[in-house]
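Exam revision sheet. Question 4 asks you to relate a sequence to its structure. Input first:
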Amino acid sequence: MNLFEGHSFHIPVLGVGYSMDTPINVAPFGISSVISLVDDTVIENMREFYSKKFDIPFKTISKKVDDFRAKRIASYLNLVDEIVKRKVAELKKTALNAGSELEKYINMLPDVSSIKLNFNLADKSHHAADELLKWVNEKLHVGSIDVNIMTKLDKVNSKDGVELPIEHNDAHAALRGFATSNLSSALVLSAGMSPRLFSYIENFKDFFPDVNGWLKKKIILKVSDFRSAFIQGKMLAAKGLWVSEYRIESGVNCGGHCFPTNGVLFGPILEEFKLNKNRLFDTCSSIYKSALEKKEIVQPTKTPEMKITAQGGVGTSEEHNFLLDYYEMDGVGWASPFMLVPEVISIDTETMNLLAKGKEADYYYSGLSPLGVPFNSIKGASMSVRRLELAKQGKAGTPCTKGFLKYNTEYTEKPICTSSRQYQTMKLKELIDLNLPKDEYQKAYDKVIEKECLCIGLSISTLKSKNMPVKPSEEVTTCPGPNLAYFSKISSLKEMVDHIYGRIDLLDNRPRPHMFLKELNMYLDIFKERIENFLKDMDNVKEKKQLVRYQKNLIDGINYYKELFTEKKKDVIDELERLIHKYPMLDTEL
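Answer key, structure tokens:
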């Protein structure tokens, strides 16, 4: 393991609102985290809340203001930046005080951190104090205040009935808000490739290097495989835009939307990155330099940095270290476990208690997202309870008040959301008119009403946690990864960090599958369902071809794990064999 200057983990984005203010809580301790830029209304609410809390002048940016979305986002990010700088200044001021925030900072670092090794807080000598103060003032690492944009959430907007230019689309405006903010941090792009959004980044000079190669604004790509990383990295490099980090996410995901592969498992994906890291760097670096030359940008004297990190389903220090050591990752993302850390995440008490009490059977892989992408959730979340009650009363769906997920044009010329009452009313009427058999109708009905209003559900907990007023009808959607099932203790930041580094153990006293096998289990479930459906309609040539590929990828991945763990991890091999035994359809001849 490298001697990290600071932490070897980061906190990825959590939902729309859960990590909205996480950087305020963790950046002063050197921990990087990510804010979602989906909901500018909640962002504005949080800006007002924190302005009052830190006695900073606040002026509302109403929706009547031109370019209000970008301005709201930029103003909030500037506020977060100012608050973090205040907290860091206070930390520096009290550095030598007993029990200071600096002591907490250093105590939380991994034991192999070069900072921790260089300073002994018990040494009170004059020389030691001078050295510590010098380091604090010159080299104290502050966590990055990063932001996340889901490239798919790029809804077209209108004003006075007139469609606005593309730069006012949701993702474009969010990008502009970040680009014009004071932050020196990273933009995390997730949910796939968006050529037009990638091109828009070229409009902002902060994404281009100075003569030393320094980037005020960096780009992080969240990817699920090497091919995607390679294609997107080259595409951005050709525009003179450097990807500073590739975040590989497993199929289990950190929480929320999942983007499962075609049966290709996390271990083989990480292996491919390990073997091809230099190829990725060299290829993109060559294209990048040519693009800068064409743009007449001075070539930086320093080679740009490229990190490869992994996230999704990590739950133990052993897994954390394995990713760092064997796969040579530059960092690891920990998300869902922090949903039990109120010191870090904005989450209401009721929802946090639900997550703490949840067991393996309570966490499930759902179809509740209007995007049509699988979504992690937990049974009993208040939005799901209300959604089912309304459907029972003949009022399926939710009034669409925010409209971030308007994509369906099945019944309307302008896109609407599949979780909306408007859509579900029309869809259910169509189902009735089809006169389907009872079982078939019920299955179709359940699929329609499963869609949930994520715009409200993923942000309302944040407001509740700050005691802000919410409507009685506004309930909470949760987005934990299934890994949270093995955590039940509501913890402090220090406790969770100590768990990550193996100093304490926060896991329940229950069997927990290895992170690779948890993902494999999910893919086997998907394969089983698809096989069962295919056997009812074996004339589907396209599905047969896809299933053959899926099956081969699974078998290749299983063989990879057998080879990887046979010598050193017999318990994982035994667990793998028991898991495979439960899925005899894996041997189905297609």
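Marking note for examiners. The two ends are 44 Å apart (CA to CA).
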